[in-house]
Amino acid sequence: MPLNPRPMSLAAYACDPAHSRGRRHPEPTAPTRTEFQRDRDRIVHSTAFRRLVYKTQVFLNHEGDLFRTRLTHSLEVAQLARSIARPLGLNEDLVEAVALAHDLGHTPFGHAGQDALDDCMATHGGFEHNLQSLRVVDQLEERYPAFDGLNLSFETREGILKHCSRANAQRLEAQEPGGVGRRFLDRTQPSLEAQLCNLADEIAYNAHDIDDGVRSGLLTLEQLEQVSLFDRFRREALAAHPQLQGRRLLYESIRLMLSAQVYDVIDATALALRRHAPASADAARLLRPVLCFGEAMRQESQALKTFLLRNLYRHPQVMATTGRAKTVVRELFAAYMADPAQLQAGFASRGDTPRAVADYIAGMTDRFAAREHERLTGRRLLP
């Protein structure tokens, strides 16, 4: 059996695992899996990946069994990204690995927890969840005898680091010259597979936040008629099935919307690839972002994001819950800083106490954070 067989129908501009920039700690190749398949498998078996099932997407974990979590969101991103990758000739295994790992560094309580932790770390280097995802796979996972982290390939790590401040990019560059921080200094792009995961992330959360918003009762189908992207497919669903209503109408409308967005990205990106004709993955990195919606779909997608921001993410009920979640994170940080012995032993023994506290809190699930807060403060802010 050949070592690291090249994926079928891989385009010249795709990332070929046979030409990977490698791992920070060299390892022998696997007999039956490519480098990116190995990355995906390591991510799936990691502790941080399992924790995502109890981390908030929009609604806190205790608010309902059927709302999306960071884990189900990551799975949906992976499915959408693979659906787009294949017809474009991109590497499906790489997009799956990046999609499954992109939220590993997210705090409990979603963006509320992230914002609170960033405030707490303002005088200690700040907190960026994308950078934290990289810390998880580079340092914080403890699974192997020879190195910290998961020792993923450069291409997967590059895709995980979606955003990065210049200051943090400079720190990364000092630690790893020419590594994953370099592109933020040179203002070049990540691989096309990484660009695809960024777009699939947006498609996924727009769609499933509609679903979760209606399920929660905070959004109604009548409100969603204001959104042209959704209403177009609601009307299309009713034209095909005039008796459709309720959840079946919602699901069919979302299904049609997702399909249209996937096909739009494929068509718009294929056109851009024909125009620029990058001869290699590195040549694609030197272009402006290539993975894209068509202009009409981009505008409709942006209008949907604006609608969700105003009507769901800033809904008074969501804001009240996230306000309590921010208090939990801030008070946890203060309690651990005041008494680092309350941290687990592996964190308490580190020299950089603020970063150790941030790492510890960021790794918590919603319910563990709520329990720890009650243990340390004697107050219960969240069920």
TrEMBL record:
Entry-linked SUPFAM superfamilies: HD-domain/PDEase-like
Region (Disordered) location: 17-36
One record GO biological process: dGTP catabolic process
Domain HD: residue ranges: 70-206
Regions annotated as coiled coil: none
GO molecular function, one term: dGTPase activity
Top-level taxon of origin: Bacteria
Protein keywords: Hydrolase
Pfam families: HD, HD_assoc
Family membership: Belongs to the dGTPase family. Type 2 subfamily.
Name of the molecule in the record: Deoxyguanosinetriphosphate triphosphohydrolase-like protein
